[in-house]
Amino acid sequence: MAPGGRFSGLTTRGRCLLAGGGATCVCAIVLDERDLLRAGVFVALLPLLALLLAARTRRTVRAERTLDPPRAPVGSGIDVELQLEGGPLLGALRLSDAAPDAAGPQADAPPRFTVHRLSSRGTATLSYPLRPVLRGVHRVGPLTGTATDPLGLAEFDHELAGSQRLVVLPRVVPLRGVPPALGAGEGTAGAALSHQGPGSTDVLIRPYRQGDELRRVHWRSSARHGELMVRLEERPWRGGMTLLLDRRDCAHRGRGADSSLEFAVSLAASVCVHLFTRGEPVTLVTEDGVELTPPGSASGREQLLDALAGLRPSARTDLAGPELTAGTEVLAVLGAITPGDVEALTSRHPAGGHAVLCDTATWDPAGGRSTVAEGAAALRRAGWHVAVAAARLTPSQVWDQLVAGAAPAGVGRR
Fold first, then answer.
1. How far apart are CA 74 and CA 71, in angstroms?
2. In what order do the strands lie in the sheet with 93-97?
3. Which of 403, 407, 261, 262 is nearest to 335 (CA)?
4. Topology (CATH level 3) of domain 238-404
5. Using CA atoms, how far apart are residues 368 and 89, in angstroms rounded to an integer?
6. Are 273 and 301 within 8 A, CB to CB?
7. What kind and span of H or E run contains 159?
8. SS3 of 131, please?
């Protein structure tokens, strides 16, 4: 559209036609040519008539946008429907709806449509799909309409619908079982007693270790794996679990959906939903001690996923923070850690716990040497069960490592 002025709605074609008609009229008056004057007046009036037609379309057309659903997990399909209402169109109506790349429009450009006429009832329905590629709270819109006349002499831009909130939730994958408590099934009576409680008994399997009782050998699994496997009885955690999510920007690598932070968020969301479903109490906190977990109900679960959808990286550089809840199992989902981070974590929960270490070098090989082995060894020496997450693994595979219950060095062995 041409820049401001009295006839700012005219296109370049319309302005040229208006100028040509005016010049023709001046020449006709000078030459006293009435026929030429009629032609000049007609040519000059065409752009002005086009302005009126385009302005009328802009005033009469309304639009409403519907997102179905308005909140959805990463990678799921979302249908966007545009409902138009108004009087007859005397020219084309070009529509452009703004959709960020993270919301996943199919084309590289924002969704665009051209409407030449409405139905007999003065309505039209348009739709397009979105497939979000990155969690977060996105804005879809505004919807802009450009009304033109049939000859393309004038056009007006008009915002037909504002922006709408689209909540893209982290990916949640199904998980099985829960990790054994520290010392559970390893001859530590205190740990076994602390996990007694009502509920059905499930079975966990892990490789045989020296000192295990032969009556606990699971022969069917041993035959399937080709080595002795022992059975662990899984009992509900009466004290619940505290899940610490490390969202420090300096501790993660990779970009967008393919980053270690997104993996950590997906794992945390999956664990929380899994434990909520089992009826286990769980508290989710960030590395600075801020609690994200709402009351443990169905609506609270949705609020938790909404909070994780809007979670942003932190500028903190350490894991120092308030002491983690005493009397609960602790699961720390961590990025790259330093010896100082290990010391800070163990001081926040001296009893030890479970930890998932992201091998950030697998998300960004150019980011430097991997230090995950040193970090895992330090945590194991401090009494933590550790599973290592790599870019090629899924959250369920990493969770299976924890459920297998590999004992930390020097802990729970006889």
1. 10
2. 112-115, 93-97, 143-148, 155-161
3. 261
4. Rossmann fold (3.40.50)
5. 61
6. yes
7. strand 155-161
8. coil
205, 230 contact by CB (below 8 A): yes
Common-topology check for domains 60-169 and 238-404? no
Dist CA 319 CA 322 (whole Å): 10
Render pLDDT for 4-19 as a digit per residue (tens, 0 to 9): 445 567 777 778 888 8
Dist CA 253 CA 249 (whole Å):
8
Rounded distance between C-alpha atoms, residue 72 and residue 267, angstroms: 17
- Local structure of 68: helix, strand or coil: strand
Please say whether the beta carbons of 184 and 192 come within 8 A.
yes
| pTM, to two decimals | 0.73
Residue 6: predicted pLDDT? 53
In this structure, how many other beta carbons lie within 10 angstroms of the beta carbon of residue 109? 8
Residue boundaries of the structural domains of the chain = 12-58, 60-169, 238-404
Residue 313: is the preceding peptide bond cis (ω within 30°)? Answer: no
Q: Which two tokens stand for residue 253?
A: 């690598």
Region 60-169: CATH code:
2.60.40.10
Q: What is the pLDDT of the chain when averaged over all its residues?
A: 80
* DSSP bridge partners of 314: 248
DSSP annotation of 198: S
Residue pLDDT, tens place only, 247-271: 999 999 988 888 999 999 999 999 9
Sheet containing 241-245: order of strands: 282-286, 241-245, 329-334, 354-358, 385-389
Give the SS3 label for residue 410.
coil
Give dist(CA 400, CA 197) in Å, integer.
Answer: 24
Distance CA 170, CA 174 (A): 13
Task: Compare 345 and 277 and report the one with higher pLDDT.
Answer: 345
What is the CB neighbour count within 10 angstroms for residue 164?
A: 16
How far is Cα 396 from Cα 390, in angstroms, rounded to an integer? 12
- pLDDT tens figures, 140-176: 989 988 877 777 787 778 888 899 999 999 999 999 8
Could you identify the residue written with the tokens 């990463």? 74
- DSSP letter for each residue of 219-255: HHHHHHHTS-EEEEEE---TT-EEEEE--BGGG--EE
Q: Are strands 282-286 and 241-245 parallel, antiparallel or unpaired?
A: parallel
